[in-house]
Every structure is written in structure tokens, then in C-alpha cells.
Amino acid sequence: MSTHIETLVIGAGQAGLSTAYHLGRRGRDCLVIDARTRVGDGWRQHWDSLRLYTPARFDGLPGMPFPGDPWHYPSKDETADYLEAYAARFQIPLRLGTMVLRVSSEGGRFLVETDTEDYLADNVVVATGTFGRAPSIPAFAADLDGSITQLHSSEYRRPEQLADGPVLVVGASHSGHDIAYEAALTRPTTLVGLDRGQNPVRLDSPLARVAFPLLWFVWGTVLDRRTPMGRKALQHIRFHGGPALRVKREDLRARGVERIEERVVGVEGGRPLLAGGRALDVATVVWATGFRQAFSWLDLPAIGADGWPREERGVATDVPGLFFCGLSMQSSFRSMLVGGAGEDAKYVAGRVAQRMAHAPAAPARA
């Protein structure tokens, strides 16, 4: 026996909660489910020193500003607690500790099978994260010497996890910069990977207060998927990583990080091998190599050959009633930021409501 839900939202992060908020405002019934047992745990599981790359002024979800000094950069725990408070304030309908096993089509609706019960939904919104749920680690990592400690960036919490001795951080996007910078306080550290550029403004500088409103505008209107620059950014960010945001090249140099603009291409003698032929003697490898899309549980013709959903602004192009929210570059560069979730969610909720226009609506939530 399946429980009927008009719209099932999968994922209780900023995208899923924002979608539920906007559906509620439109009087549409929904339920948000998440495998974790507490709202915000996706943020709590990041490394200890992580702070958002946008000030609190730009981090609020619809209807609720982020608390505290609007120009401070919230920690990952502040962000998690904010999401939990948001869900409570707006009485978001939640079912936590529920893992989705399979989503398929059944009689013009969606059968959502979970490890606790099954649901029959008119609409499904997939809000499982910006870059999917599976760490992207090269297959040859298994050939590294067993004495080398290996961590993906999603597993890294603090420098004490690193073995004594040299550290190699693979991947030069913002997370790679942050982790290499922190590791270099206590261990010789090398950061490898192609240069993805860097944010031109120091986030904690007085200039940031002047520049951020302009950056926010550029991220949302210039780097929009409807513009040539936005379409180019989509390919770059989704498949090659974004720029360094907080830690600059000069910060790495000042802390003694060896920066090598090459890729790790294999293993030689149990050691990581660079494209230029140099094998590195290291005690730890941190794979800051991002995530790959993991939609094997989505038994629907909605995923392209590149692993990304076929969608336009979160609306699946080939499966009516299927939506996505929280994708990187879903509408613009803002989409992958906490404060960008609300705008994308509003659009997706509007399209859900439009689809259900002839169905009776639930009482709108305040």
C-alpha cells in the first residue's frame, strides 16, 4: 500500500526546504523526505573550519533572513542550525531517516520506494545536492601504496585525520585551496590541479562590502544559463570545478604550499604520478576532486549521457512531473549558493503549481 502525496521533495537541504516553502505558500501539498535524521546534517558533516563563501546578508532562504551580523560568513554549523530553525518556523512537512531506493513511473504518477514505506506522488522534486551524492575518485587510487592515507574532501574534518608526513591535495577548486591551506599549518603540503581562477576580492576585506552586491548581480544575471557567458560557465563549473573563493594563490605561497598545475594521472611504485612524469612521496592524499551525479535510483528517462539531468531551470524535459532543485548552474551561478536556492525553488514550485492548477489546493501556509 502506497501513501499518496501530491509532491514529494527528496532532500531536506536549502533547495528542498525552499521548494516546500514556496509550495506551501501556493497552497500545494508536499512532503520532504531525507535519509539523514536531522535537518542540516549535510552541512554538519563538512570539515570543521568551513565557512560559507557568501556573507549572511546573502544567505537567507525565502521568508527568513540569516541571523547575526549580515556581513559575517556563517560557519557550517551555523548554517545547519539555520536550516533546522527554518524547517521548524515554517512547519515544513518532513519525514527524516528515510532513504529513497527507487523512483519509477506508475500509472501516470511516480512510485517512490524507500527503506521505510512507499509513496505514490503526482510530482517529484529531486533536491539531493549541487553536485550529486557520489565522491569522484579516480579508479587508480586503489593502486596507491597501502601505507598512504586517502580521504575524499567529503570525509575530511580536521588536520588530525592526516598522517604524519607530506600531504597531497588533488583538485584546485575552492575546497582544495581551503584544505591545502589548513593542512600546511602542520605538514608539508602540495596542491595539484589546473588553475580554475580565483575570486578577485578578499571575502573578509572592507572592499567585499562594496563588491558583493555587484558580484551577486553578476552571478545572477550575467552568469545566467540564458547568456553566452552563463552557458560557458555551466560547462566549466559542472565539469571542471569552480574558482578559488576564499584562499588566494598568494596565501598558499605564504604558507609554503607547493603548487603544481598538473593532473595526477596514475600510480608509479605505489606513489601518485603527475602528468609530467614526477611521482610524489606523500603520506596522505586528499581527493578534492568533487562529486559525480549519482542517479541510479532514478528509474526514469531523465538523465543525459553526461550524467546530468536533462532539464530546463529544474524542469525535466522528458518526464512530466519530475523536477530538480539545487543543481549547480540550475539557472545561474547563484544556484550553487545557499542564498540562491530560493529563487530556483520559487520557479520550480510555480511550475509544479501550474501543472496541478486543476487539482484542489491545500490551505496555504503562512
Structural features:
alpha/beta, five-stranded parallel β-sheet, FAD/NAD(P)-binding domain, 366 residues, 2 domains, 25% helix, seven-stranded mixed β-sheet, single chain
Topology:
Layout: E1 3-10, H1 14-25, E2 30-33, H2 41-44, H3 76-89, E3 94-95, E4 100-106, E5 109-114, E6 118-126, E7 134-135, E8 149-152, E9 167-170, H4 174-183, E10 189-192, H5 206-222, H6 228-240, H7 249-254, E11 258-260, E12 264-268, E13 271-274, E14 284-287, E15 291-292, E16 311-312, E17 315-316, E18 322-324, H8 341-355
Parallel strand pairs: 1-2, 1-6, 2-3, 6-18, 8-14, 9-10, 9-14, 10-11
Antiparallel strand pairs: 4-5, 5-6, 7-15, 12-13, 16-17
Describe what this molecule looks like in 3D.
- It is a single chain.
- The protein is an alpha/beta fold and 366 residues long.
- The model has no long low-confidence stretch (mean pLDDT 94).
- 25% of the residues lie in helices and 20% in strands.
- Helix 1 crosses helix 8 (341-355).
- It has helices spanning 14-25, 41-44, 76-89, 174-183, 206-222, 228-240, 249-254, 341-355, and strands at 3-10, 30-33, 94-95, 100-106, 109-114, 118-126, 134-135, 149-152, 167-170, 189-192, 258-260, 264-268, 271-274, 284-287, 291-292, 311-312, 315-316, 322-324.
- The protein starts with a strand and ends in an 11-residue tail after the last helix.
- The strands form 5 sheets. Strands 1, 2, 3, 4, 5, 6 and 18 form a 7-stranded mixed beta sheet that branches. It has a 5-stranded parallel beta sheet with strand order 8-14-9-10-11, with helices on one face. Strands 7-15 form a two-stranded antiparallel sheet.
